[in-house]
Amino acid sequence: MEYIKIRFSNDLDDIESKLDKTIAGMFHSMGPSFSFARTTWKPQLDIYETAEKIFIVAELAGVQKDDLELEINPRAMRIFGKRIACAPEKNGRYRLAEIQYGYFERILYIRTPINTETVTARYKNGFLHVEMEKMPYPTKQKVHINME
């Protein structure tokens, strides 16, 4: 896959985003049914590497495999999808609502180019494991300069 969505923002976008999250958080604390229609949350990640590979582990408890997508290009990776809320018991009331539901997205920019043909991903026990092979850096060569 060559396409990946990349967002650019400025300071005003950042302030607006923080305000939206604060308002959404106030309503979400009253119960998940009070959340905005398209809220976005970010899964937590672990990223580690060896000389040859980069490993990413994303915590996605409660996300069904069919609701999870991964896009990659040689310099960036996008994990996105949705987590569907569990319906509370009939006549039940929320006393605490901390679990985030709805759409999620995480875009990672990778400093080292990766080989997109060898990327592997597996999903087990609520964790997405992604393994990426680094592309070798081009070697330096001396160029002979001819005299005229």
Key words describing this protein structure:
148 residues; mainly beta; Immunoglobulin-like; four-stranded mixed sheet; four-stranded antiparallel sheet; 8 strands; disordered N terminus
Structural summary, described in words:
With 148 residues, the protein is mostly beta strands. Strands 1-6-5-4 form a 4-stranded mixed sheet, with no helix packed on it. It is elongated, with a radius of gyration of 21 Å. The N terminus is likely disordered.
The number of strands is: 8
Count of helical regions: 1
> What is the highest CATH level, the class of the domain at 39-86 and 95-134?
Mainly Beta
- Envelope shape: elongated
Percentage of residues assigned to helices: 10-25%
Q: What is the strand content?
A: 35-45%
Q: At the third CATH level, what is the topology name of the domain at 39-86 and 95-134?
A: Immunoglobulin-like
Low-pLDDT segments, ≥5 res: 1-13
Structural class assignment: mainly beta
**How would you write the strand order of the largest sheet?**
1-6-5-4
Task: Tell me the radius of gyration.
Answer: 21 Å
The H/E string reads HEEEEEEEE
Tell me the major beta sheet.
4 strands, mixed
Rounded mean pLDDT score = 80
Distance between the termini: 48 Å
Please state the second-level CATH architecture of the domain at 39-86 and 95-134: Sandwich
